[in-house]
Q: What sequence folds into this?
């Protein structure tokens, strides 16, 4: 592209203001080809790369520009943004700290610093930094938004609601619909955590009326409808899961079958989401067969031994097996919509899964003739940050029940759990023997009761028709509805809910009382707690 660097940078500015970003980039590249140390061209190219999502290229250009003008205010803001886009938050923190030291009134720098600290889970520091930004400008919406996220991370939910509402109130008129959707989604999530789903639903509905294309709102609304028991609206909105971020994309040939027209059809049902989801919704596969369809089921490999031989299922396939010929392919979690499932019509006949009899016999022999009830226990989902998971030591009130043998139904035990067991935690470790879900099912069948958090074991025990007590967080997933002690999905389940967010100790104490009442037990003493 011909022209002097001065003429080209002037033309690039015209292109940039007009939104012709590719043309602006061509001007910038032409400049650095002539003058590799041209600050304005390097800065422009860095910004254009950042806007395109090319964060690594943005960092390269902006660090070259920083060597030329290390104190340039806007360039350093953009460099901090680029480091954050690469998720290199310590570097983003350093860049932002340097900038606020020289330009203490730069609100973007304070906000970027607060964001970088929050991403490093240093939320108290983040809040202090963001308060500085808001002291300069109380209506600075980005700082209020990041403040809300850090407050949420610290469990200060009422304050987080106020922060997100402030961010909404002061969002500039040119704020994109997607950005407004982010604020709405975060605010709605906190309202749900506060057990205010009706308020969250009204918030999302209002925003969706203004911005009908925001599918994240449709998705979040569907979860609220399901939690509130409005399955008609919930299942319909649930189909938006394929269009939201962080979710798998559907197969191009996937469809929702017309149940009235499936007789004689070959239907391939594909599993999705977690193992617990597959176990919960696989109950629909035999219903397809009852209506005259030939049913093939594609699932995770470790579920094949459990689901093979399920009534009405012609074949169960793993993730890499060749698929049979089919007429219809449908995702498993679209079947409630296809069947028009309401809370009152959930197909809740149990057991719809059965443990292998030979494996059950082996487990009964392995457990021996010990007296007293045998209780299976699951306390962790394998995700240490999950709100529906806890540590084994939080189960101390339950483990203090005398004449009960406790059996771990999970394969992952961290070092803290193992130390608790070594000190006399009274839970038998069966990790080596639990090779797949069929083996876990056989162990469950050999027990008297399962006590578990909301994980795949809860669904497995419920599907087997085994008595199962499910320990739920203060606000549970939609599938457990609200304020119920029973589950329309699993007739043998009893639900225990936290009285306050994060109160696993209190919940375990209530479950312990229920266990002693059920089996007429007395408490025993355990080793003292290892917590300070």
A:
């Amino acid at each position: 592209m011909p022209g002097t660097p001065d003429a080209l940078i002037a033309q690039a500015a015209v292109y940039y203001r007009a939104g012709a970003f590719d043309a602006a980039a061509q001007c910038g590249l032409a400049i650095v080809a002539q003058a590799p140390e041209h600050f304005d061209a390097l800065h422009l190219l860095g910004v254009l790369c950042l806007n395109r999502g090319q964060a690594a290229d943005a960092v390269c250009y902006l660090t070259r520009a920083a060597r030329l003008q290390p104190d340039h205010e806007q360039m350093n803001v953009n460099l901090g943004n680029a480091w954050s886009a690469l998720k290199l938050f310590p570097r983003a923190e350093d860049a932002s700290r340097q900038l606020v030291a020289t330009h203490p009134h730069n609100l973007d720098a304070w906000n970027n610093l607060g964001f970088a600290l929050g991403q490093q889970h240093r939320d108290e520091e983040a809040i202090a930094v963001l308060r500085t930004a808001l002291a300069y400008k109380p209506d600075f919406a980005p700082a209020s938004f990041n403040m809300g996220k850090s407050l949420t991370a610290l469990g200060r939910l009422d304050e987080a609601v106020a922060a997100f509402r402030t961010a909404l109130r002061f969002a500039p008129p040119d704020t994109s619909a997607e950005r407004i959707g982010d604020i709405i989604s975060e605010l709605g999530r906190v309202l749900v955590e506060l057990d205010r789903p009706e308020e969250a639903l009204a918030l999302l509905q209002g925003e969706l009326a203004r911005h009908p294309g925001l599918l994240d709102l449709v998705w979040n609304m569907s979860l609220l409808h399901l939690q509130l028991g409005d399955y008609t609206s919930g299942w319909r909105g649930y189909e938006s899961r394929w269009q939201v971020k962080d979710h798998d994309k559907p197969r191009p040939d996937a469809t929702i079958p017309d149940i009235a027209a499936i007789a004689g059809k070959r239907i391939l049902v594909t599993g999705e989401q977690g193992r617990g989801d597959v176990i919960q919704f696989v109950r629909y596969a035999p219903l397809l067969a009852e209506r005259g369809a030939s049913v093939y089921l594609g699932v995770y490999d470790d579920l094949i031994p459990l689901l093979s031989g399920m009534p009405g299922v012609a074949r169960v396939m793993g993730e890499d097996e060749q698929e049979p010929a089919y007429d219809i392919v449908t995702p498993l979690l679209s079947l409630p919509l296809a069947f028009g499932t309401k809370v009152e019509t959930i197909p809740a006949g149990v057991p719809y899964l059965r443990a292998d009899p030979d494996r059950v016999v082996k487990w009964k022999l392995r457990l021996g003739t010990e007296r007293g009830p045998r209780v299976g226990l699951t306390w962790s989902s394998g995700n240490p940050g999950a709100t529906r998971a806890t540590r084994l030591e939080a189960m101390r009130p339950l483990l203090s029940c005398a004449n009960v043998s406790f059996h771990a139904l999970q394969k992952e035990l961290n070092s803290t759990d193992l130390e608790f067991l070594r000190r006399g935690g009274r839970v038998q470790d069966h990790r080596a023997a639990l090779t797949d879900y069929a083996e876990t099912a056989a162990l469950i069948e050999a027990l008297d009761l399962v006590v578990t958090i909301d994980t795949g074991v809860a669904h497995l025990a419920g599907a087997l028709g085994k008595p199962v007590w499910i320990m739920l967080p203060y606000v549970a997933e939609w599938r457990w509805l609200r304020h119920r002690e029973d589950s329309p999905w699993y007739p043998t389940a009893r639900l225990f809910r936290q009285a306050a967010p994060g109160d696993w100790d209190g919940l375990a104490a209530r479950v312990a009382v229920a266990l002693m009442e059920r089996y007429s037990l007395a408490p025993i003493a355990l080793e003292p707690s290892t917590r300070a």
